[in-house]
Amino acid sequence: MTSGILRVDHYKSDLSRLTAMIGAALVVFGALLLVIVAYAGWSANGAAVVRERQLVENALDRSVSSVLDQQKAIAWWDDAVAHAQSRPVSTEWLETNVGIYFFETYGHDEIIIVDGQNRPVYANVEGALADPAAAYAAREGVLDQIVAEARGGADGHLRSRDQAFVDSQSNYSALLGASFGKWAGHIMSVDGEPAVVAAISIVPNLDPNLLQGEPHLLLSVVRIDEGFMAQVGSSLLIADLSLSAEPDPSNSVLSEAFVADDGAPVGYLTWTPKQPGQTLLMFVLPMVALGVFGAGLLTWLMIGRLKRASSDLADREVESRHQALHDSLSGLPNRHHFVERLQECLDGLVQSRNNGRVVVAYIDVDRFKDVNDTMGHAAGDALIMAVARRLQTHVTAQDFLSRFGGDEFAVMRTSNSPAAAAELAERLRGAFEESFDVYGQHVRMTASIGLAQAPDHGVSPQELMRHADIALYQGKNNGRDRAMLFSAEMAAEVEQRREIEVDLHTALTAGELNLFYQPVISCARGAVTGLEALLRWKHPTKGDISPAIFVPIAEEAGLMPALGAFVLERAFQEARRWPDLDVAINLSPVQFRHVDLVELLEQLLAKYGIDPSRIILEVTEGVLMESTDRNRQILETVRGLGFKIALDDFGTGYSSLRYLCDFRFDKIKIDRAFVTGIHERKRAMTIIQSVVTLGRGLGMDIVAEGVETEAEASVMRLVGVTELQGFFFSQAVPADRIDALVQQLSQSIASSERPGAVGDLRAQRRT
């Protein structure tokens, strides 16, 4: 009995001790938990304040870089150099293109230009032309520091804020091999108030010979006022960010002393900081306390809830990281992720010092714009996703595939095989062998691929990507649908293209460009009835340069409007010499985009008095595929003026038959690809017969280009072609030789019945 009581007491004692221990543990761990939760809330609030301080500071730094970027758009320009250095200074030009432009477009309060000796030569204050010396003198203490830094570099006494601009220019320089001027940008105290003060040298972007002596400097003063701070706050999602002269006494508002880069106090930055920890302090902490004092179960539930919250937060962080490194449309890694991975592989290649290679391949979908224009942007997006999936199935698990944007993709491969680049190119080309299913339509696409490999073609991401891009460009120039491995010759060709572009500027004004004319023979009349004007360039040192070389360069360089206007005017001028012949002139798609074609044609008609029915304007399908409604209106207006319209290179483009329905043409020119060797190609014969039947049925004349043999000429006449053109009759000749050529051809064609007539034509072609 006694032993039983003792056991019960012992049990009660143990239970009491256990209860006490549990109670004490609950109290201790409950209190500890409360402290931890409270500390987490306060720490979160503190960390948020620190983060927001840094965000505001970074945003102000970006504002300085933004002002420099805005200045760069005008300062690094040949025209700006020419007008700033002119004697006297082109004040009117500077006022329009610099002063008013920066004031109205970007809100620059003061714009000043100083010459190479730091003497002010132009000023615009608050949008109005001002005295340069007075404007500079009013800010002399601040501007002298900025000018000195822009001229000689930072000396460390002003805080650096232009690192983002410096980085962007260094990347741009590495990619393009260009050289840039100098700059300086800071937040300074101007009249006791903060302002972004920036200086950048005015240097040429194309012709370095324009610069005479020390470059001028473009100075800008942008006051940090209420609107400026509102814009900064909006970019940071801080709605009440403001600048005040005194700190805000409210406990809920944070006031940070704002100090200019030279150490001068310029007020206080105030805003209401976010308090992410407030939820913990206001809600979680009472719930934890209730769990500690009310029931252990609730405590465990709260712990589980916190775990779930932590898991959700981690998941969101992982998702955010994934979104930052991946393309939203295709789900592939993006350009930033690709460059990071490429840098890692290149670092490993340098450290390993073995025979490994890193291959970079640029992929550009050929004529992707055609799909967007004809099927819509939604179809274009669907095609991009289909291409991404196809590429994923054709690369290996070790390859790194990414999308750079638009229709560009990139692949990186590390390998010890000398044939790694060729193997990768073959795989990528295989991805485009089958058509793509886009909204139920089977679309056949090709791709141009440029490849470069380390260490042969560079050991930095910038070098490899630039060289792969050059190889891609070469592939597109060679007809697309091919893979090209970078070589030194390609880089030399890029440099040669740049030289041709510069020389072409000079050729337009130096009289190096001329028109040659190739005769067009009427099958019905057996005589020369027209001429096609063809542009020729005889370079003073390089000799004859083919239009196939310089015309694409002109289109890319923005010279095509001027070049097209030159061809039209010269052709109109010389057409007056042959009143009985039609003259055909080729129009570039660029002329439709950048030139008021109708107005130009009206001016030429009035100037030269040409019968417009003698002028045949030849357009390709490239013109018709861009802005169809607008181009249809232009073509109809041109036809209304009396001009004839011909569809050139028929059959080589995209959906040609559709254009015959949508547009009215007077002539169709069958491309030489169908004419060459026609007597040996039955399929081409069938196609031409169909085109002739269709064109003649629509009331159009049919011209066969590229006729080089008697057999081709005979076949073309037999199938019903209206006119013939090609080397069989004559190559293109200068305007001075046209009269003699027409007479000789007429005699040869008229006597074509007699023996030896074919020899006469061949002899004429040779001469």
Description:
With 767 residues, the protein is α+β, with helices and mostly antiparallel strands. Helix 1 (2-75) packs across helix 7 (226-236) and helix 15 (488-510) packs across helix 16 (547-557). The radius of gyration is 37 Å and the shape is globular.
How is the secondary structure organized here?
Elements: H1 2-75, H2 78-85, H3 91-106, E1 110-114, E2 120-125, E3 128-129, H4 132-138, H5 140-152, H6 163-176, E4 183-190, E5 193-202, E6 216-223, H7 226-236, E7 242-244, E8 254-259, E9 265-271, H8 278-294, H9 296-325, H10 335-352, E10 357-365, H11 368-375, H12 377-394, E11 400-405, E12 408-415, H13 420-430, E13 436-438, E14 441-443, E15 447-454, H14 461-477, E16 483-485, H15 488-510, E17 513-522, E18 527-539, E19 543-545, H16 547-557, H17 560-575, E20 582-586, H18 589-594, H19 597-608, E21 615-619, H20 621-625, H21 628-640, E22 644-650, H22 656-662, E23 667-670, H23 672-675, H24 682-697, E24 701-704, H25 710-719, E25 723-724, E26 733-734, H26 738-750, H27 757-766
Parallel strand pairs: 15-16, 18-20, 20-21, 21-22, 22-23, 23-24, 24-25
Antiparallel strand pairs: 1-2, 1-6, 2-3, 4-5, 5-6, 7-9, 8-9, 10-12, 10-15, 11-12, 13-14, 17-18, 17-25, 17-26, 18-19
Summarize the structure.
This protein is α+β, with helices and mostly antiparallel strands and 767 residues long. It has 27 helices and 26 strands. Helix 1 runs antiparallel to helix 8 (278-294) and helix 15 (488-510) crosses helix 16 (547-557).
Sheet with most strands: strand arrangement? 17-18-20-21-22-23-24-25
Write down the overall geometry: globular
So how many helices?
Answer: 27
Query: What is the mean predicted local confidence, pLDDT?
Result: 83
Percent of sequence in beta strands = 15-25%
User: Could you give a short account of the major beta sheet?
Assistant: 8 strands, mixed, barrel
Kindly provide the radius of gyration, computed on alpha-carbon positions and rounded to a whole number of angstroms. Answer: 37 Å
Number of separate strands:
26
Helix-strand makeup class: alpha+beta
Cα end-to-end separation? 140 Å
Residue share in helix: 40-55%
Uncertain segments: 1-9, 174-179, 753-767
